[in-house]
Amino acid sequence: MADQTPMLSPDRAISIIELLARHSFGLPLSEIADQLAIPRSATHRLLADLKEEGYVRQDYDGAAYRLTAKLVALGYSFLTTAGVSNQLQPIIDRLAEQTGELVVLAVVERGKLLRLIKAQGARGGLLYNPDEGPEVYLAATSNGHAYLSTLMEDEAIQLVAKQGFQSEGVGKNAPKTFRQLFEHVDQARETGVARIFDVWVDGTSAMAAPVFRSGTKTAIGTISVAGPTIRMNNQRMDQFVDLLKAACRDVSETGSSLPIFEQA
Amino acid sequence: MSSRSRGIAILELLTGHPWGLSVTEIADQLAIPAAATVRVLSSLVASGYVHGSGKDGYYRLSPKLPALGLAFLGASGVTDLVQPILDDLAKKTGELVRIAIISTDKLTWVAKSQGARSGLLYDPEAAADVYLPASANGQAWLCCLPDAEIRRLVNDQDINRPGFGSGAPQTFAELMKAIEIARQQGYASVRDSYAVGTSAMAIPIMRRTTRRPIGTLSVAGPTMRMTEARMREIFPWLQSSAKELEAASGSSPLFSVQ
Predict the structure, then answer these.
(1) Are residues A63 and A93 in the same domain?
(2) Is A16 in the same domain as A99?
(3) Which of A7, A94, A105, A189 has the most CB atoms lying inside 10 A of its own CB?
(4) Domain coverage including residue A27
């Protein structure tokens, strides 16, 4: 069908999957139809197809539609065939084990930073397991600051402007102006590691460093370590700096040529 | 016939070819006309799911799809994602489905779904830790371990503990024989062992990266229904649910890095 308007994505089935990925408790048919501006009858047909293909489930007739684990499984199967699970996941797992906190690897994709691998090192008790979308908000996350610190100022401003400054849903120390942002970014550039305290989510802190394409100064990703502020203070971060940088080097050396990274 | 989304079909195909495929290969494999393939591909490129054909003329998946999966996983949390998988299996088998998680030297029941609607059903109280030698779950875990490790874990728990069924292994040799059978048939099974009149089967859930066990998944019911033939029927369903759980376990705090 060539008449589908690619607003969010190339086809309506993929738009529905994207929408449901943001609503883990599911959405009723009417809501899906309204949000995507698709007629209800067509929405019903699309959902029936997605159900048959195993992407979507409905617990009973009339219940909300929600995603199954198939999307996740598809993503994992790609990561496995692409060599990510074998070669990169162990590096992230090791860092999670060493730090006992949440570790995330994000990859650069056309000026955006996407969270790709996560490992939870905290065993219980107080742990930080945020509910986040795929795209990293550059202005108020350690991953974002680490990435921005590798760019020319013009480019950094452009990328941040494209996302806009969020005033809600961020921590009390989130930068609200470019000037505040670049204080963070400059510090990250000087030390090689971005550190934030109560910036992204109140009560949590994080540190991150860039992953460069092997032998270059081009960032292809970032790695962060995040946890409750009560544990993640400056002293503890000092202890993690070498571990974090070593993980970034490992990913750079073993991973630069993997197909998930932008190629030179 | 499902009017299958061509966009999804292409994404699924590219998932298995991380280094990419040419337009012709994609069109051939999916039996879509080349012109339509080009059209769908260019919109997938525009929306960021696919990297456009470079010098080599190949299209490959960008990280957007796996990142979307990870975001969904983070948002839904383990119970939300795990429970529907258990419910599906319970519905298919009509029996009790349970998942147990390994933490250091213990196996702990964490969630279940009862598929039997009424009549004779098996639904034990959740004794938090699984007694390994007598349960299908325990044996499924032991199957993955070297003999010395099995001996150590079972010694800690002792063998032939009172209060279990006549089918429970009475000696270490009997346990090892059961484990040998389980390794051969691909799943652990017990009969009148954990509880008299009930039988169960289980397989391990592996961590994707290390291929080490992180938990076990079982189906249990009255022995009169859970026959050997029935277990062979259930086996492929059990395997596919375990695969789904492996995918779902990626970032959940429940299956934290061991």
Answers:
(1) no
(2) no
(3) A105
(4) 9-68
